[in-house]
Design brief:
The complex is a heterodimer of chains A (about 190) and B (about 350). With about 190 residues, chain A is α+β, with helices and mostly antiparallel strands. In chain A, about 20% of the residues lie in helices and about 30% in strands. Chain A has a four-stranded antiparallel β-sheet with strand order 4-3-8-9, with no helix packed on it. In chain A, strands 2-1-7 form a three-stranded antiparallel β-sheet, with no helix packed on it. In chain A, strands 5-6 form a two-stranded antiparallel sheet. Chain B has about 350 residues and is an alpha+beta fold. In chain B, a hairpin with a 5-residue loop joins β3 and β4. The longest helix of chain B is centred in the middle third of the chain and has 16 residues. The N terminus of chain B is likely disordered. The relative contact order of chain B is 0.11. The chains are: A alpha+beta (about 190), B alpha+beta (about 350). Chains A and B meet through α1, α2, β2, β5 and β6 of A and α1, β8, β13, α3 and α5 of B. β5 of chain A pairs antiparallel with β13 of chain B, so a sheet runs across the interface. The complex binds zinc ion. The site of zinc ion has 4 residues of chain B, from α3.
């Protein structure tokens, strides 16, 4: 979680020194160059493969909200390509937190997102949120061994806890195109 | 949580142990190709633009692979130099007049030299049609999907009869939004852009209905950002991990990607806005004293701290912050948002 902090400090450090050189304008350029070089060294190569790589995949579980309560359909579990798209947090900060635990109740990880049952529009001076109107959504989890319990926390309170079925790594990504209203453009 | 005091200590130490670092300007450039999603026969023009610095030499290389329906590559050609510019005058362009053919993944690399530094822009794109069934089509990808931010452009059904406009809009959004904002454009290795092969339905916020998701939405959950580009005049909304935008707007794209890629909170004055305080490098604070304490870390003062709405939420960014506005105009990010962006890009690359 904190491995990035030293690099950010180095970036700030190099920037500070350049300020002392009297080249304020170069400060942010040096900061960026250091970060860009670091990211370039880590970014790897694009992988077009549609095959699930067990070391780089995530789970999706179907969830439902009836306006008051959450229901989880653990009979539907889908494994998908790519790591969990969310940042792991030491302390969750957004409204909808997902925390996952092993069989001993040890916290394995957690993240938070905007409430998936709501949608919003960012326009100052107008109504901004339609809360609790999306009844069906997905909860994503990292495809790692050992997740037993998953807890959903909103507004600082547990609103749901459920058990996750054993990981099934052989499940392939969904290649169907069955929903109405979609058109293939390719 | 990492405290601002610790950060300031680190900076102080830096002054005590100055580094032998040259105070010179290195070249900064950015690359793009057009059309962004070429057909098998389309000529492709590669462009390199300069932000600043001196460039002594640029070379352009290409390599082409066959890609099959499973996304497997074969027949990858050796990387070939296709153009050299000595003492270049910007912008640089080179057009490959013959198309690349179908079922191809093309990788090009601009090698840029200047100020005793060499760096590369390596970009990969697919030709259309893309054979990997129901997967997002890579139109400008630079790294592994697990290490960079991924943004998928999805055509609204209103784009069905305007697909040329959709494709050109995606190119424009990459070039005129992500390559326009001063801070974002410099992170050449941090953004993969895709086009979705199936449509979605962008709905008006005031309809009370959420967006209609594309049929292959399960193949898009790897992405941090999913935007439905449309031709309507509607009040755009974000929900369920998707946001909508008119095909031509820049400010909405920057604002909403601020939410979805970097978890930036809103900075406009409304009690209904989306406010939260990140534990690391926030752009919202839930009390004035914390915001005032953080201000010097961003070369700001307590006087820069502004309350948002009537509730206890505070910001430090200037009034032009993209998280403070939306719509058509595009403004540059201010320091707190810049640090948050840098943090998330490094976090993504490091894990
Ligand atoms: Zn917003």
């Amino acid at each position: 979680m904190k491995k990035h902090i030293p690099l950010l400090i180095i970036i700030l450090v190099s920037g500070s020194f350049l300020t002392s050189c009297g080249q304020e304008k170069d400060k942010s350029k040096k900061e960026v160059e250091t970060a860009v070089d670091k990211i370039d060294s880590l970014k790897g190569k694009f992988n077009p493969s549609a095959t699930i790589n067990p070391s780089s995949s995530h789970w999706a579980v179907h969830a439902y909200f009836d306006g008051r309560q959450y229901t989880i359909d653990t009979s539907f579990t889908d494994i998908r390509a790519g790591k969990l798209p969310y940042i792991q947090e030491e302390k969750t900060s957004m409204p909808f937190a997902v925390k996952y635990y092993d069989a001993n109740g040890r916290l394995l990880g957690q993240y938070s997102i905007e409430n998936p049952t709501s949608f919003r529009s960012c326009e100052p001076g107008k109504e901004a949120v339609k809360p609790g109107v999306i009844s069906s959504f997905e909860i994503l989890l990292p495809a790692i061994e050992g997740i037993q319990k998953v807890q959903i926390v909103t507004g600082g309170k547990e609103v749901k806890i459920f058990s996750l079925p054993p990981l099934r790594r052989e499940v392939k990504s969904d290649n169907t195109n069955s929903k109405p209203g979609s058109t293939n453009i390719n | 949580m990492y405290s601002y005091q610790s950060l300031k200590r680190s900076i102080f130490i830096a002054f005590c142990f100055p580094l032998a670092m040259a105070c010179k300007e290195n070249p900064e450039t950015f690359a793009i190709h057009s059309p962004i999603s070429p057909s098998d026969t389309d000529p492709v023009t590669f462009t390199l633009r300069r932000i600043g610095g001196s460039v002594s030499e640029v070379k352009l290389f290409e390599s082409v692979s066959d890609v099959n329906s499973a996304g497997e590559l074969s027949g990858t050609t050796a990387e070939t130099e296709i153009q050299t510019w000595n003492s270049p005058s910007f912008p640089l362009t080179f057009t490959k007049t013959s198309g690349y053919g179908s079922n191809k993944l093309v990788t090009y690399r601009f090698q840029v030299k200047g100020n005793n530094k060499t760096y590369n822009h390596t970009v990969t794109f697919a030709t259309r049609p893309y054979p990997v069934t129901n997967q997002a089509i890579p139109v400008y990808v630079v790294g592994n999907q697990d290490k960079v931010m991924n943004l998928v452009f999805i055509p609204d059904t209103s784009m069905n009869s305007r697909m040329d406009l959709f494709f050109s809009s995606v190119g424009s959004q990459i070039d005129s939004t992500f390559h326009q904002e001063d801070w974002v454009r410099r992170f050449r290795g941090s953004y993969n852009f895709f086009i979705n092969p199936v449509t979605a339905i962008a709905r008006d916020f005031n309809s009370g209905l959420p967006h209609g998701l594309p049929s292959n939405s399960s193949n898009l959950s790897f992405a941090q950002g999913r935007v439905i580009l449309h031709f309507h005049d509607i009040r755009d909304q974000a929900g369920g991990g998707y946001f909508s935008a008119e095909y031509y707007v820049r400010g909405t794209m920057l604002h909403e990607s601020g939410h979805s890629l970097y978890r930036l909170a809103d900075e406009y004055d409304s009690n209904d806005a989306s406010h939260w305080e990140e534990s690391v490098f926030p752009n919202n604070w839930d009390n004035r004293s914390d915001a005032e304490a953080a201000a010097p870390s961003y070369s700001k003062t307590a006087a820069d701290v502004q309350k948002m709405g009537t509730r206890d939420w505070y910001r430090i960014c200037n009034n032009l912050c993209p998280m403070r506005s939306s719509g058509r105009p595009l403004n540059n990010h201010d320091e707190p948002c810049k640090m948050r962006i840098l943090y998330t890009l490094l976090q993504r690359a490091s894990n």
